[in-house]
Amino acid sequence: MADFVQSLARGLLVIRAFDADHPELTLSQVARITGLTRAAARRFLHTLVALGYVRSDGRLFALRPQVLQLGHAYLSSLSLPALAQPHLEKLAAQVRESCSMSVLDGDRVVYVARVPTKRIMSVTISVGTRFPAHATAMGRVLLAAQDRAWLDEYLAKARLERLTSRTVVDARRLRQELDVVRGQGWALVDQELEDGLRSLAVPVRGPRGVVAAVNVSAHTSRGNALSVRDDLLAPLQAAAKLIEEDLRQ
Fold it and tell me: What are the residue boundaries of the HTH iclR-type domain, all occurrences included (predicted)?
């Protein structure tokens, strides 16, 4: 593409090399994760240090809080998280479980609103957290809402990573699961993202179709998958409907 700025793309690739599992990286690690040469990785890292997005102690590099400004511009432009937050707070208080909203970004879901009640996962989830869409209830709701051409391309190219012994990693089976989700209007994922975690999700629809998904997550100690659906689906659907009503105003 004539208008594609490769240096910008590489700089963003360096920023995305850092995550919850890799908060600090050496130059060699950044080069390996991004596929850049050490010389190129060094130039990008030192540029990001000079701009205030990355800090370094001479050996290790880490993101600085200023990098949040990059995502804040996007979140500030969205009215959806602000509209959803009070409804998620009421839902969390009602069901006494953590509730979230996410949107689809390629093959990942990105959390844009969240109300945690207790920690039930080994990783901390916050606004901006990303998970593979195929292994999450919100991801399946959002994938099921895509048109057939988009979904065909996704299933042909996506890396369906196995995160637990229960994760669906076969494209044909995932398509079948998405057909079920599309038909029933909700998704229940049982320990596919992490052992001990169940999640129930429904879509949030705007004037042009599904714009986000909301979920309730519960530990398996709450009961079996059927009881989770029976206990949580109705209040979750009610919360989604209230968010949709606010979107129409």
Answer: 5-65
